[in-house]
Write a structure and sequence with these properties.
Elements: H1 2-8, E1 13-17, E2 24-29, E3 34-35, H2 39-52, E4 60-65, E5 68-74, E6 80-83, E7 88-91, E8 100-106, E9 110-115, H3 119-124, H4 129-138, E10 143-149, E11 157-163, E12 168-171, H5 175-188, E13 197-202, E14 210-216, E15 221-225
Parallel strand pairs: 2-4, 9-10, 11-13
Antiparallel strand pairs: 1-2, 2-3, 4-5, 5-6, 6-15, 7-8, 8-9, 10-11, 11-12, 13-14, 14-15
């Protein structure tokens, strides 16, 4: 599985497996290592499981993964939402040159999350990947996720996620990064100025325009969106 994920060279590659605890089991790999959980691969894999007939079509699904059992729901408009693992939040000691008030947020993947003053400043950021990789390793983190107020009506915040230590210089759209931002907003009391239900935008610097729907409750964070099949085929593995 790790060799295939390295070959695809995508942010994450997933594998659907049978489960005796849930509707299916999911294993998730970056080009370099396995993850216990990731948001967008979970939503995309649920879409693939339903479309391919790997699981029967229904409105709710359960997924077994390294982070435990993840509950998913299929909305009437076709969006798939997942209930995120409970975040574990800690302070980050020492200096941090990207953003203010950094926090270490563990949702399976571990993100160092910080806020920048404006979307323009976030968009202009050209981070030192070697430095981020070293920082991530020193803090036992996946990478850093930064956010800023969007200043536009269609979404509340802009987000960027960097994980060069995992072979992902910048993730075009990051589910676990967005979950971590939502946990950060709730933890710091900043959610009031955004709202408990909002849309985040990510990926513009990579030629993408991803939109993530976020719902933040007292006891659970949900993220969701639409998934679309882009490639359908078979992979033959040589000996």
């Amino acid at each position: 599985m790790q060799r295939i994920a390295c070959w695809t060279n995508l942010s994450e590659t997933t594998f659907l497996l049978p489960s005796d605890k849930a509707d299916y089991r999911l294993r998730i790999f970056t080009p370099r290592q396995e993850l216990p959980f990731a948001g967008h691969p979970t939503i995309g894999s649920a879409h693939a499981a339903l479309e391919s007939g790997f699981v029967a079509k229904k409105r709710t699904l359960t997924q077994e993964c390294g982070a435990g059992i993840i509950e998913l729901s299929l909305e009437a408009d076709g969006r798939i939402f997942l209930g995120a693992p409970q975040p574990k939040i800690a302070q980050v000691d020492g200096s941090f040159e990207y953003g203010r008030n950094p926090l270490r947020v563990d949702v399976g993947p571990v993100w160092i999350v910080a806020e920048l003053p404006s979307a323009a400043e976030l968009a202009a950021l050209q981070p030192d990947m070697a430095a981020i990789s070293a920082l991530s390793n020193s803090l036992d983190a996946t990478g850093i996720t930064l956010f800023a107020p969007a200043g536009e009506s269609s979404c509340a915040i802009h987000v960027r996620s960097f994980a060069p230590a995992h072979g992902i210089p910048e993730d075009p759209v990051c589910g676990s990064g967005n979950i971590s931002v939502a946990a950060y907003l709730r933890h710091t009391g900043s959610l009031q100025k955004i709202g408990a239900s909002y849309t985040a935008r990510q990926g513009m610097q990579l030629g993408r325009d991803g939109r993530v729907s976020v719902r933040v409750g007292e006891n659970q964070i949900q993220i969701g969106g639409h998934a679309v099949t882009c490639v359908d085929g078979a992979l033959k593995i040589g000996v």
